[in-house]
Design a protein that fits this description.
This protein has 448 residues and is α/β, with parallel strands linked by helices. It has two domains: 163 residues, Aspartate Aminotransferase, domain 1; 275 residues, Type I PLP-dependent aspartate aminotransferase-like (Major domain) (Aspartate Aminotransferase, domain 2, 3-Layer(aba) Sandwich). The chain has 16 helices and 17 strands. Helix 6 packs across helix 12 and helix 15 packs across helix 16. The model has no long low-confidence stretch (mean pLDDT 97). The structure holds pyridoxal-5'-phosphate.
Length: 448
């Protein structure tokens, strides 16, 4: 190692791990054996000692264009030198309008208005608030109920955990929002095991919304929010026809339908948004992650014209929606977003994901039959691999596989409970798809 290299190495290894409280991480176990990442390029992460790790997860489902892409890096650098910050309230900078137009152009027809925030959690809370306020401004203030789904993940704000359906994210945090109900989740291993794409079984579960309407009355229900593919809970693609049925029932009762596309947006399922893949038009779409390919935090909500227009009625000097964030449409995020959307378009990355989907699914399904693999699900460039839990605790086997994959096989995988989740950058090559699953297979076999 040269002197300069050893200085870089020393600077990239922290000497005290105590102060940082890691999110969604077993902190004590992590600090005994940290997994550190010092830099990244394209499909790879690099550890502080220079080991290349193939990124099987696009970070946290976000670096869809790959890591440290030059056009995005340069756009952020230029923007930082030109305009660091402009107030988000009462003022605006040009790139915020440009990015909103570009995002709206990717969304289904009539979803033409974009509200920016900084994360998926904020996007969800923003969408829920817009839904409630919309019913209020048009004189239907009794519509206050929000309907989520079991096993849903909508971030960690109080709105998001209220409509979310992952028990560990809810049980310590008190009463949360009142007036929330949940649809059943859509997973049934007996009926769906080893499905490629949308499972055949399960569309009828959307009819549970009829039961919820019968229980509470439509006049009390504001909105339904679902992920078109439930990601964080362990990759549950929507059953065939399910989203269409939800849309029909929402229309029947004047209930807004929100698609949480924080993961499924920006090419993950082979289209700009999953709404396009399924031919179902929601009333709002939440997004984050892929908008900047993970490079600068950003989230947002795309809103149907009729909802937006309902707010644009009172006196023109008055604020129409009392909501927003200091960093809504932050200049660095807008610059990164514009450069990212350019890359998606120039490199045809959404189409690329669509084209690679069958190969990806074949490679994932090749793990069927390995020890302890009890189900595999795929859709777009996503795969979920369920492992049988060890008798001494849910999540232990998957944690060992993830750790071994990182340290010994040089591939990054994500885990939820005993599910391994894979969702690589959309620039992944055909041979790297093979490499991801070969490495994961070796890790599964080694852990036993
Ligand atoms: C569907 C969905 N909604 C919301 C969120 C929350 O996003 P963030 O972590 O940026 O707040 C996530 C994060 O994974 C998500 O998958």
């Amino acid at each position: 190692m040269s002197l300069a290299e050893s200085r870089d190495f020393a600077a990239s290894v922290p000497n005290d791990l105590a102060a940082y409280w890691l999110p969604f991480t077993p902190n004590r176990a992590f600090k005994k054996a940290p997994r550190l990442i010092a830099r990244a390029k394209d499909m790879h992460y690099y550890t502080p000692d220079g080991r290349a790790v193939l990124d099987g997860t696009a970070g946290l489902w976000c670096t869809n264009a790959g890591h440290n892409r030059q056009p995005i890096v340069e756009a952020i650098q230029r923007q930082a030198a030109e305009l660091d910050y402009a107030p988000a309230f009462q003022f605006a900078h040009p790139k915020s309008f440009e990015l909103a137009s570009r995002v709206a152009a990717l969304a289904p027809e009539n979803l033409d208005h974009v509200f920016f925030c900084n994360s998926g959690s904020e996007a969800v809370d923003t969408a829920l608030k817009i839904a409630l306020a919309y019913h209020n401004v048009r004189g239907q203030g009794s519509r206050t109920r929000l309907i989520g789904r079991e096993r849903g993940y909508h971030g960690v704000g109080f709105g998001g955990i209220s409509v979310g359906g992952i028990v560990a994210n809810r049980r310590y945090f008190g009463g949360m929002l009142t007036g929330v109900d949940h649809l059943p989740h859509t997973y049934n291993r007996e009926q769906q095991a080893f499905s490629r794409g949308e499972p055949e079984w399960g569309a009828h579960l959307a009819d549970e919304l009829e039961r919820i309407v019968a229980l509470h009355d439509a006049s009390t229900i504001a909105a339904v929010i679902v992920e078109p593919m439930a990601g964080s809970t362990g990759v549950l693609p929507a059953p065939k026809g399910y989203l269409q049925r939800l849309r029909q029932i929402c229309d029947k009762y004047g209930i807004l339908l929100i698609f949480d596309e924080v993961i499924t947006g920006f090419g993950r399922l082979g289209y700009a948004f999953a709404a396009e893949r399924y031919g179902v038009k929601p009333d709002m779409i939440t997004f984050a992650k892929g908008i900047t390919s993970g490079s600068v935090p950003m989230g947002g909500v795309i809103v149907r014209d009729e909802i937006h227009d309902a707010f644009m009625t009172g006196p023109e000097h008055a604020i129409e929606l009392f909501h927003g964030y200091t960093y809504s449409a932050h200049p660095l995020a807008c610059a990164a977003g514009l450069a990212t959307l350019d890359l998606y378009r120039e490199e045809g990355l959404f189409e690329r994901a669509r084209k690679l989907e069958p190969l990806w699914a074949d490679a994932a399904m090749s793990l069927k039959g390995l020890p302890n693999v009890v189900d595999i699900r795929t859709v777009g460039l996503v795969a979920g691999i369920d492992l049988a839990s060890r008798p001494d605790g849910v999540g232990r086997r998957a944690t060992e596989v993830m750790d071994r994959a990182f340290r010994e096989e040089n591939v990054m995988v994500r885990i939820t409970g005993d599910t391994l989740a894979l969702s690589p950058p959309l620039i992944i090559s055909e041979s790297q798809i093979g490499e991801v699953f070969e490495k994961v297979a070796r890790a599964i076999k080694a852990v036993g």
